[in-house]
Specification:
This protein is mainly alpha-helical. Helix content is about 60%, strand content about 0%. This is PRKR-interacting protein 1.
Length: about 170
């Protein structure tokens, strides 16, 4: 769909050709989506404000001097302008506070995630060492101690030396 002259030639139905990130946190809205929606709203507002004519009411004519009601008209216009400026200022302060809060929140979440990752790594190392220790003790029990070292026989006779066979033969006789 192409935009018409009425909407400024802009495609209001689509997302303007930009890719929008979809939230993966279980139904919440992503910060990227909100920023793009906010930008779209600001563009629309700017376009509307540019196209709306400024109407100044209660203007005095070229030949008129200041009468008794001009002061009250001036005060009313001044009050309206002051109200508009204060609304703009409070709106700016709110947006600034929200942006700062979101920045601090993201920093806190990032720091918490780093701490969690560090503790997770520590737990995994501890678990791995415990597992290695357990397998090491199981291997020590199942395997003979050293194959190169001979253990003495219980009866005092050795199978390897010829002397013990002779002694064993002597005992039989």
């Amino acid at each position: 769909m192409s935009g018409s002259a009425r909407d400024g030639g802009r495609d209001l139905a689509g997302n303007g050709g930009r890719e929008v990130a979809v939230a993966a946190d279980g139904g919440g809205r992503s910060g990227v989506v909100l920023r793009e929606e906010e930008e779209d709203l600001e563009v629309k507002l700017r376009r509307i404000m540019d196209n709306v004519p400024v109407r100044v009411s209660n203007t005095s004519g070229s030949s008129a001097g200041s009468g008794s009601g001009d002061f009250h008209q001036y005060r009313q216009m001044r009050r309206r302008e002051q109200d508009r400026l204060s609304r703009m200022d409070t709106d700016y302060q709110k947006r600034k506070a929200i942006a700062e809060f979101n920045m601090r929140r993201e920093e806190r979440l990032k720091a918490a995630e780093e701490r969690t990752a560090k503790k997770r790594l520590k737990r995994q190392k501890k678990k791995q060492k415990k597992k290695e220790k357990k397998t090491k003790t199981n291997n020590d029990v199942e395997e003979p101690k050293d194959e190169g070292v001979e253990e003495p026989d219980v009866d005092g006779f050795s199978d390897d030396s010829g002397d013990s066979k002779e002694e064993g033969e002597e005992l039989k006789q």
